[in-house]
Backbone:
């Protein structure tokens, strides 16, 4: 299981476990497990997000959601789970963060808000609009923008490089922000 390789100990293990070796699950028999049938109306990722929110979590990190070996349909759906999570939060304005994480990148859902990313010179940041039009302001990168209109489908805001150790981003609208570590 992914959390083993990351040195994390889960509070809850949830899903249909169709791709998990049963001997691995036995190592975690002291941890609460919720098993679902393989044929269900939601992915394991969605079930995990809903369970976390029901337990009062306001900081959601999705691990394994952006695995490049994954099927494209799951990859896209997992990224849209960031939007679902924000929508299901009791008070999205006070939520600390919703993001998908892997060893090379963090992907954030940003909705009418500011985001400060800590990194290093040479890191990449991409902004992908999820609305027809968004306004983007970004400083601390090679190609700074000030309330620039970006349309959905445009590649204008892909692969901007950090010029320093941080990037400050403001989005009017909804976008995915990808921070890839160099």
Residues:
């Amino acid at each position: 299981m992914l959390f083993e390789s990351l040195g994390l100990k889960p509070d809850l293990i949830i899903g249909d476990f169709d791709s998990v070796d049963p001997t691995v699950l036995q190592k975690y028999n002291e941890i609460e497990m919720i098993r679902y049938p393989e044929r269900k109306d939601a992915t394991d990722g969605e079930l995990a997000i809903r369970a976390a929110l029901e337990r009062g979590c306001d900081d959601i990190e999705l691990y394994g959601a952006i695995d490049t070996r994954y099927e494209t349909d799951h990859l896209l759906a997992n990224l849209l789970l960031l939007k679902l999570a924000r929508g299901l939060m009791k008070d999205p304005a006070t939520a600390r963060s919703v993001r998908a994480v892997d060893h090379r990148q963090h992907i954030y859902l940003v909705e009418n808000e500011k985001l400060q990313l800590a990194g290093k010179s040479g890191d990449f940041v991409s902004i992908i609009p999820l609305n027809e039009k968004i306004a983007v302001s970004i400083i601390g990168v090679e190609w700074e923008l000030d309330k620039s209109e970006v349309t959905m489908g445009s590649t204008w805001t892909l692969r901007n490089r950090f010029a320093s150790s941080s990037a400050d981003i403001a989005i009017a609208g909804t976008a995915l922000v990808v921070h890839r570590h160099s």
In short: The mean pLDDT is 91.
